[in-house]
Amino acid sequence: MLEKRTPLNVQAAIERCIDQSQKMPLIDVSIEDSLGYYLAEDIIAAYDIPMFDKSPYDGYAIRSAASAGASGDNRLAFKKIDHIGAGSVSTSVLSDNEAVRIMTGAPIPEGADAVVMLEQTVETAEGFTLRKSFEPGENISRQGEECTKGEVVLTAGTKITPGVIAVLATFSYQSVKVRQKPTVALIATGSELAAADEELAPGKIRNSNGPMIAGLLAEMEMDTETYRVTADHYEHLLAIVERALSKHDIVITTGGVSVGDFDFMPAIYAALSADVLFNKVAMRPGSVTTVAAKGSQLLFGLSGNPSACYSGYELFVKPALKEMMGAANVHAPVIKARLAADFTKANPFTRFIRAELDMVSGTVRPAGFNKSNAVIAIARSNSMIILPGGTRGFKAGDLVDVMVTRLTDVAGTW
Amino acid sequence: MLEKRTPLNVQAAIERCIDQSQKMPLIDVSIEDSLGYYLAEDIIAAYDIPMFDKSPYDGYAIRSAASAGASGDNRLAFKKIDHIGAGSVSTSVLSDNEAVRIMTGAPIPEGADAVVMLEQTVETAEGFTLRKSFEPGENISRQGEECTKGEVVLTAGTKITPGVIAVLATFSYQSVKVRQKPTVALIATGSELAAADEELAPGKIRNSNGPMIAGLLAEMEMDTETYRVTADHYEHLLAIVERALSKHDIVITTGGVSVGDFDFMPAIYAALSADVLFNKVAMRPGSVTTVAAKGSQLLFGLSGNPSACYSGYELFVKPALKEMMGAANVHAPVIKARLAADFTKANPFTRFIRAELDMVSGTVRPAGFNKSNAVIAIARSNSMIILPGGTRGFKAGDLVDVMVTRLTDVAGTW
């Protein structure tokens, strides 16, 4: 008797995965190791930035009052009384037409309230002359002009990028609170799969899903263990999944989720008493994608067809991993772009098409042969066209939804 | 006497860096370690994909001729003579109304030319009945329908993504030819800099450029060595740069490139007899960004101001690193977006503003306080607004150029 499955709307399926994703425990990581984690705490300015009034230029710190009346016909002379670089504090207190030679980043000496750029001066034996008057505060980077002590400068859930690391370093952080990354077990199933070091006997194909998903996880620097399936029967596979669950937060399988005679995953979810969140999604490819929860652990049953497997990862696994890591935003942006080629297939279910998006021109085209088992189009894609279910096909020039999965470089500058 | 520098147009400066970037030597990497490299060879299909006619569904392989005339009123009976999963080859040759129960991915048995999906059958003791006729080739994934042996499926210069790894795995690659990554020395200069483990004495600030650039390099998994500057004088810094050049392909310094009294980099380039490609770029911030070549080695002298340092890395270092690695495309895409806020400053030089791009709405806004020494806006940015030199400011709603530096997630699904 063939099992009947009720398809779930794809956004509802994504939401169900996220709702089920439990946040990982808090840990401290050193800022050098923090890249790719998400802030688990707001970052609050520990002091004003800049910390002190400073010079934004190489030049001379002066009292602006002393420059009053300066002009091309009336160059005023200043006397250099000190000379400081960044990192040094002048002990001088300026009066009258005194000046301190000062370099970019150095604190403004006491008594000074303006900075004359080197380019604006003519050197003399004693100091320099200038030909214009200066306003109080001119050419000074004011203490606190970027942010003041106590201000929230970055919020929890922000992805830690090199720019975030720069902020953490600025505020003297040596480590930062984040959420641990989930550890992942990766299991490619299917009796047709030959590993890279095995002979490609008749009827066999290479296991490409395993290396692909491992690569996708590596891009997020997830701690991943790949399990090798050595015999294609239920008991063996169940034992592997049980072993994986004993060690990992997430178990990703590829293949075995459909209704075929050798699709063991549905029986394995049952044997584990896992709560199946869905086993049919109203989408193509990958309608048989199944996600199950066992306590706080998630089991992602991705399709064995590469294009379906890839789409399932992008749609369900990636947002869930981010949610577990405490990300504020977990969804890939979906933008509008113009189809550069006809796509005439009807779409009973929402269709995802691996695509080449040209951000510069705002156009998009399928990245090649587009069946569920296609693999080359994945490699050529940086996005997925999303065609709503119930539509009869689209023409070149139509505006369509495009999920941007990857930022790709272009040939020329702007 | 103040040195006069002639500003170079920013695109010309970028081009000069790329022209000077020499391709790294060829190496073989295992496909597991190949992520983030660029293909140094075209990938040619070693065989047809699919390799053989196969079933895209779980069902029965039949002779289509035997289904002629089937209808709801005239269900035709088929006899199951074999049962195969993916990876198995049936030894049966079909005749008449014989059928082989076949699973997704399994090779089509001899004599069969169509596949009936399980859902289209009603099981009987001997096999099944069906109610529709099938065309020759119906529900068969044809050998070579995705690509044929000898076809170039991916070209040299393509970035190795998880999808590319899937293609390499498909064609039995265990390793692939790429260009080595350049090794990078990173040297943060400036007497005002306090390392994370040093006291923040008056006049000092934290070294944020070092950790930031290290993070940017880590995102490309570059082999980076950070050199610590322990004394701020010319001889010490020269010795460090010489040591770095003896070990690395690329030397990145931050700070010390301007015309200040403690800016030692210009003298160091001279002492090394390095060929200065430019030392002034018609851009804000970072106009003093300097790039020099010493044989095949490149020295990037980035500004000590964080926003300028960051922009210099994105504009000059990143494309050069990609060029050295053999990337076909090395430039970040520049798209059009609508300003969501006024930007009224005049732009004598081309201005780069760290910005928040909302790809979904197509709008962009400055990411915060926007002086050369700002750091928080870098952390909040995923792009840079590019305002051409010679313009007097822009208003909300104006269409501007935006360099997309980072793909950021969004709050909701489409």
Automatic annotation (TrEMBL), chains A, B:
NCBIfam families (UniProt xref): Glp_gephyrin, molyb_syn
Statement: the UniProt record of this protein carries the keyword Ribonucleoprotein: no
GO biological process: Mo-molybdopterin cofactor biosynthetic process
GO CC, alphabetical: cytosol
Top-level class of the enzyme under EC nomenclature: transferase
Gene Ontology molecular functions: metal ion binding; molybdopterin molybdotransferase activity
Stated name of the protein: Molybdopterin molybdenumtransferase
Catalytic activity: adenylyl-molybdopterin + molybdate = Mo-molybdopterin + AMP + H(+)
MoaB/Mog domain span: 185-323
EC number of this enzyme: 2.10.1.1
Pathway stated in the Swiss-Prot or TrEMBL entry: Cofactor biosynthesis; molybdopterin biosynthesis
Entry similarity comment: Belongs to the MoeA family.
Task of the protein: Catalyzes the insertion of molybdate into adenylated molybdopterin with the concomitant release of AMP.
SMART domains: MoCF_biosynth (SM00852)
Domain of life: Bacteria
Record-linked InterPro entries: MoaB/Mog-like_dom_sf, MoaB/Mog_dom, MoeA-like, MoeA_C_domain_IV, MoeA_C_domain_IV_sf, MoeA_linker/N, MoeA_linker/N_sf
Names of required cofactors: Mg(2+)
Alphabetized UniProt keyword annotations: Magnesium, Metal-binding, Molybdenum, Molybdenum cofactor biosynthesis, Transferase
